[in-house]
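The material for today's practical consists of a large collection of protein records. There is nothing in a record beyond a sequence line and a structure line. Backbone structure tokens are a discrete shorthand for how the chain folds in space. Nothing more is needed to start thinking about how sequence determines fold. As an example, a complete record with its sequence and its structure tokens follows.
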Amino acid sequence: VQLQESGPGLVKPSQTLSCAASGFTFSSYAMSWYRQAPGSERELVASISSAGGSTNYANSVKGRFTISRDNAKNTLYLQMNSLKPEDTALYYCAKDIGYYSGTYYSSIGYDYWGQGTQVTVSS
């Protein structure tokens, strides 16, 4: 499993992160974005079901961030709008572990993650 994030580093007010996945059947697995700020624990930012029909967001980013995926391109995205200095962190894409209730997906963790991409939002 390989997950390769890419992003802008020092960001504009709106920006999109990408994660190229390989080594597994991308379309069969839910995916997620996590972030970790210095001195803080890694936190779940957003998750998306395998087909993309179910998404979940941390309260801190709800309404500002959008997770999406292109299964034909084996790529996961995180569109970030209205960025704030408190969004500054190392962002990781992860192959998710969770469960479905009907079509609704809930994340409970992850088993693989990428090396991370730094997002820095200046005040």
